[in-house]
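[09:14] KT: can someone run the structure on this one? pasting the chain below
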Amino acid sequence: MTEELLVIKARSIIDFGATYDVTDPAEDDETIGSYRRKGWTSLLRDEWLIFDSDGHEAGRIQEDSAGLAIVRRLIGGVALMIAPQVYHLEIDGTNAAKMVTSRNPFIYKLFVTIDPDVDCADPRLILAGAILLAAIEGKQGGGGLDIGG
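[09:31] RB: done, structure tokens below
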């Protein structure tokens, strides 16, 4: 709890499809990777692109179902109780993690399960994606993360 593991910085202050750089403060802010929210597409179904340390697209985080995503946006908290948001994090075509919101419409929590058999991504980059989802997508209230794996 005293060692800073990663830093997330937005490249711009106001940008609907902003890019967030993830760096390692212990290694002179060496770039781990970055995330870019797919702006207009994310209005209907949340989607983030993941880029490796060289800036090449390496994967994505995508909300489970477009139909459920639309229902969640139309009826809000009621829909979350029935069908919480589920995100799949894919790196190089492999499912690396699953993120699920809690069913509580008043307190935002995101439960993260990293596949222990997958060795295709820096776990700090997965953690950064979960933090961004909790901060940006879970903007309705306070949030928490539960990392498993």
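[09:33] KT: thanks! The beta strands are 7-10, 19-24, 30-37, 47-51, 57-63, 86-91, 94-101, 108-114, 143-148.
[09:34] RB: yep, looked fine to me
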